[in-house]
Amino acid sequence: MREYSIAAIPADGIGPEVIDAGTTVLASLEKRMGDIKFNIETFDWGSDYYKRHGVMMPADGLETLKRFDAIYFGAVGAPDVPDHITLWGLRLPICQGFDQYANVRPTKILPGIKSPLANVGPGDLDWVIIRENSEGEYSGHGGRAHRGLPEEVGTEVAIFTRVGVTRIMRYAFKMAQSRPRKFLTVVTKSNAQRHGMVMWDEIAEEVSAEFPDVTWDKMLVDAMTVRMTLNPKSLDTIVATNLHADILSDLAGALAGSLGVAPTANIDPQRRFPSMFEPIHGSAFDITGKGIANPVATFWTAAQMLDHLGEHEASERLMRAVELVTAAGILTPDVGGTSTTKDVTAAVVDAIHSSN
Ligand code: ATP
Ligand code: MG
Q: Could you tell me which residue ranges the Isopropylmalate dehydrogenase-like domain spans (predicted)?
């Protein structure tokens, strides 16, 4: 029996609803496989915890999480708690504390789900976006001078390091190498931003020499949005900075049908710490408690988690089950269906047991 300890942090809004669906599906996979076991411990950290304790998680939270094999995360954010508290109090400390520098966002159109793009269906769009997750535009450097005065200046400094860019580039080339097309697109804005972005281009050239079997090209981020929309088939693996990939992956999620199906993994490739798996969407308070949250992103990220743990067969079995269910039209309202979170979950559990 192979055992894995998983820390579940459902947190806010629809987070608990989709993580509950996810743990149900993991339990059924455990039964179907027979040789793996998930020891899931759930933590009640998040905005409600903040209202009781004044912090989003305990001071020794990271210490507690360290001993787990993986973290299964719901969503953070509440209408009555400021964003900088929810984000900086829980999700970002985990990403930064565990040096999860590679953010991996697979995107494809699942069978039965419609892309807003005309004439684009399953198979026409199959991407993995690799987002640099530790530095760049979101490094927090900058400031304000002469606040409120006519001569006020605000700066927002993007910091790129050779170590940081090289490690994400290497991760991206490896990812491209592991996929059938072995094709990588490196995104920058090096025509207008002539320092850090030019360094990205140079490091891409250097790292590419280590991967002679990977074909690659360069794109400027503005032109990239056009290519994603008009020529999605021409792309496969994509690497971009923290900000650029943030924007491109929202576009990717929308082109694939809904935020509710888009998963993401925050990976520490060196495996010194647990990696974290979550749906891309936020807490979505507008639908919280209605029982209609789409659990597909949370299932898909569980498949990413299983892959990371080396359980490839279980991961494939889970994704096959999800695709059978979406193909059968068992869908939540955000992707045009009338099913509930529970209906979709029950159908995936059935498919796990009945499919080969
Ligand atoms: P955040 O502030 O973290 O971005 P949010 O509450 O704005 O969170 P998002 O996740 O950004 O919510 O989603 C925007 C909208 O998309 C939601 O308000 C909701 O209507 C819809 N949505 C998001 N995720 C799902 C889901 N899993 N199932 C169904 N609808 C969803
Ligand atoms: Mg939002």
A: 5-348
